[in-house]
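Internal tracking record. Fields below are filled automatically when a chain is submitted to the structure queue. Please do not edit lines marked as system-generated. If the sequence contains nonstandard residues, flag them in the REMARKS field before resubmitting.
Queue: standard
Priority: normal
Entity type: single polypeptide chain
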Amino acid sequence: MNKQELYGEYFRFESGIMLKPKQGDVVFNSENDTVFFAFALILEDILGQNDYNEQVKVALLAKNIEVFGKPGRYHRDHENQLKDPNSPDINPISKDNIMALACLFKLASNNNRRKDMAKAMFTSFGTFNNTKSFRMPFNPGTYTTLGLALPGFFSSLLALICLPVFLVNLIISLNRDNFSNHMLNFMELYMNKNVFGIGFLFKYYMKSMKKRYGKLSTLVNEHPSFKMNGVVNHPIAQMMDECESKGLL
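SYSTEM-GENERATED OUTPUT FOLLOWS
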């Protein structure tokens, strides 16, 4: 499946890449649409297909899920943006989607969004909270990923401080069959692969995943969102196979 079909059938400007194609007015989205969009954009980047059209899609998605007047800055999707900003029904954005947005902004070279997100990381005390409820900061290792992906001295300093936890998290993840974590590991290592040492970790991670699972598309096919909804050989799994068959991964 080429990317025109992917974005024509699976993409929503309100959330990202869906689990299944649109059927009329029926959409099959999940809480991880933004993560899947970031994953797809990474694979396009590897295939040399990341271009201006993707930059436009990222910018429009960000506009459709941004928050005003709260430190969190982004919702999970447009549906949450439409709710009353003080509604208890707003579904808080997850750390997975926060990392996905950082990845999207970096790959799309959207530096204004990256700067804004770096500011939000500190003004929200690391919570990116877009609700009225109290929220604890994420696992410290998350801030290594974000700190390396976002601009600014203090972002880099935070990334360095949290690096030991990041490495421990990665070691634990490598030895577990947690495919949700595997997809996130792939994303966070790739988007920061040009940082000293992270490129080596990305290569080691890819070698470990190939040895453990054979085909890298297993990381997609066994992800809980796809597996629990009976989705087999999703387009991003096909893209992963294409990258591997061409020796790009």
